[in-house]
Amino acid sequence: MKIIVTHPTGNRNVRAVMSAFEQAGVLAFFGTTLAVDPDHYLLKLLPAKIAKELARRSYPLKPGLIRSRPRLELLRNVLTKFGFKNAVAHETGFASVDAIYQDLDRATAAILKRENKKHKTDAVYCYEDGAVETFVAAKKLGMECIYDLPIGYWRSARSLLSAEKERWPEWASTLVSFRDSQPKLDRKDEELRLADRIFVASSFTAKTLGDYPGKLAPVQVIPYGFPPVIEGREYNLTQNRPLKLLFVGGLSQRKGIADLFAAVKNIGKGVELTVVGMKMNVECPALDLALKEHQWIPTLAHQEILSLMREHDVFVFPSLFEGFGLVITEAMSQGTPVITTDRTAGPDLITHGVDGWIIEAGSTEALQKQIEELMVKPEAVAAVGKAAMERAKLRPWEKYGKELTAAITRHK
User: Fold this and answer.
1) Element (H, E) at 248
2) I need a labelling partner for 398 at 20 to 30 A (CA). Which of 24, 162, 178, 309 fits?
3) In 249-337, beta strands by DSSP E
4) By mean pLDDT, which of 40-54, 67-81, 177-191, 384-398 is the weakest?
5) Environment class of residue 298 by beta-carbon count within 10 Å: exposed (0-12), middle (13-18) or buried (19+)?
6) Angle (CA) 91 92 94, round 5°
7) Sequence-ordered list of residues with C-beta below 8 angstroms from that of 378, at least 6 positions apart, any chain
């Protein structure tokens, strides 16, 4: 069996899929936008910061297993840095994220039409917003269409998040998914309609697909893996100092950030909050005001985030709509116990009160109560943090890749 995988940026879960497919001998090729050889001499001629950023787009695959299409992605990165907002504007910009996804989708479809008769491939594995043209071409060639939905279904998102506009009207501008046009939403539905199999990373995401108005292919939940677990985590908690809380993520009410700020404000001096995340490209005075009251770090490299997690007592991720939440697994792997909601992968990864805490999504009161419990019993942080590391050891990224590969090849 041979499978084509496509994704514009090759994030952590995509890399796990590629690696597992290659090891199993089923990867036909990986189609992406920008793929960099980390040893290329030209990288050494660039400023260190730019070279480091480009090197993140390297993939440890054998020669011949990568097909790249870098032009639009390079333009997007350059134009963003120089402030050409119209060129990268949501959906309308010629170098927007949407344009890049669709360009790669069309390019992959063209490869199928041109090459698949010579080099027989059995399936395509595509992700949301970049699958329609590929699936249409694959169907004509009798190939299986495998779909990966990394975040919950859009109709469910609109239903659940609409209430936030009334609950927190001053934060409504940060709910940017409501900007998606009807043609974009129609593409999402068409991708689901064409899919022969659907994989998701959390039970919550699977549940949201219940709002799809048509008949769906089989849906299977395979949670992502954990990063390597830190050794020698130390805890030094007493009731004589504030509880150190950390949030990492997009600064949107989709992530429950308004609830977090409100809970911390209600608690007062008993906690210290650090926030890591970029502002959305919108005006939100409420967010600007809240950030001034806490330590805010707009962006950090991945390793720096892991280090910061180890410096904090509790990781708080009160998201209201999350396909998974990789920061949950990252924090647990660092021994930093997590408070998260029932609309993330938390229920798939955490046993409440044992290796983390699950609260009701959209409840400032539930979040505040859980934090206050830990202020009274700080010894629970160490016990739950250690249990979180043990849980993380049971599911490295390799296990996710092997389970996904087995599910696909066993099906064939």
Assistant:
1) strand 243-248
2) 309
3) 271-276, 295-297, 314-317
4) 40-54
5) exposed
6) 100
7) 237, 238, 239, 243, 313
d(CA 205, CA 207): 5
The average pLDDT across 321-335 equals: 97
| SS3 of residue 209 by DSSP | helix
Q: Ramachandran region of residue 253, left (φ > 0), alpha (ψ -120 to 50) or beta?
A: alpha
pTM of the predicted protein model: 0.93
End-to-end CA distance of the chain: 8
What angle, rounded to 10 degrees, do the helices at 364-376 and 257-267 form? 50
CA distance 300 to 336: 18
The mean pLDDT of the chain is 93
The helix-helix angle for 379-393 and 326-333 (nearest 10°) equals: 110
Among 264, 242, 260, 236, residue whose Cα is nearest residue 375: 242
Separation between Cα atoms, residue 110 and residue 116, nearest integer Å: 10
Residues across the chain: 412
Of 151, 149, 125, the closest CA to residue 20 belongs to 125
Residues in Cβ contact with 351 at an 8 Å cutoff, skipping those fewer than 6 apart: none
What's residue 131's pLDDT? 98
For the chain, domains (ranges, CATH) are 3-225+397-411 (3.40.50.2000), 243-393 (3.40.50.2000)
Structure tokens at 294: 């806490």
